[in-house]
Write a structure and sequence with these properties.
The structure is a homodimer of 169-residue chains. With 169 residues, the first copy, chain A, is α+β, with helices and mostly antiparallel strands. Chain A has one domain: Roll (Thiol Ester Dehydrase, Chain A), CATH 3.10.129.10. Chain A contains five helices and six strands, in the order E-H-E-H-H-H-H-E-E-E-E. Chain A has helices spanning 13-21, 44-54, 58-61, 63-67, 78-91, and strands spanning 3-4, 34-41, 101-109, 119-131, 138-148, 154-165. The interface between A and B is medium-sized, with 35 and 35 residues.
């Protein structure tokens, strides 16, 4: 179950297609399984573009304004970090049957900001697997995803319950 | 403390400027305070554009693919809903001193998907106010933001701890 995805930019369409065929059902998951994504570099322009659209606060938009703020220098919106984490996960070949469908997060924290030039990767670990009481043919896996920068420092920790299909009878 | 923001598109720059001057310090917050955002309509193109960049799964990208999925028709990524919630909050005039800086969410759920044409608004409520033990001059407010569609149905519930400056002595 432990699979290492290639760097996003190296993933050939054919490899992606194969991974898509290898969807994992609820019965394929077990606590302790780990999964590692490729990497993704975050540029200053991307930080500002995301902020302009979704989190237009000075410290996410402008270097000078950021210097006088809590962050001290330009920092990505936490929601940008969350969105990039999702992209890394989707592109990594982590492929529960039915898709990666989050139902409820129990924790989401940003221990340190993402800075221009940071290179992010995601480590995912399965914490729990359980059947759904109300939704026949489905269950939930609880996963912790830790998003790390190039120094191995966590920039986001997310504990999310994902809806997953059971293997068809 | 209960302030109602005007519709985003109706907010004059001058009104925004005044709100920016009215930053709220830790001492200005109390449990039970509520705040309501303006509204924002989510179009199909925006759902697909966000998904292409951050959550490239078929049910967020393509109407036909979505029909055969868990969602039944095109649905926004939950992270898109989260990002739009942040934008509504930032634009609403909810203005803690130092900015809206999330440190840790205790809950994040998406009770139903956002669909093309949905019109979203955010209701925020202060749940707790506490000083910081480790960070002099700062404290935390715990807020619940509920993002609602045009039918008053919740599409996201987020309980977030925000870092807020104390009033200067």
């Amino acid at each position: 179950m432990v699979r290492r995805a290639t760097h996003a930019s190296e993933s050939a369409p054919r490899w992606r297609h194969l991974l898509r065929l290898m969807a994992l059902y609820l019965e394929d998951f077990a606590p302790g399984q780990k999964h590692v994504s490729g990497t993704l570099r975050v540029e200053s322009d991307a930080i500002k573009a995301f902020a302009a659209q979704f989190d237009p606060q000075p410290f996410h938009l402008d270097e000078d304004a950021a210097r006088g703020s809590f962050f001290g220098s330009l920092a990505a919106s936490g929601w940008h970090t969350a969105a990039l984490t999702m992209r890394l996960l989707v592109e990594s070949g982590f492929r529960p049957a039915g898709g990666i469908i989050g139902s409820r997060a129990e924790e989401l924290k940003w221990p340190r900001p993402v800075r221009p030039g940071d290179e992010l990767r995601v480590e995912a670990e399965v914490l729990e697997v359980r059947a759904s009481g109300s939704r026949p043919g489905h269950g939930f896996i609880k996963c912790r995803t830790t998003t790390l920068n190039q120094n191995g420092e966590p920039v986001q920790v997310l504990v999310m319950n994902l809806l997953v299909q059971s293997r068809p009878a």
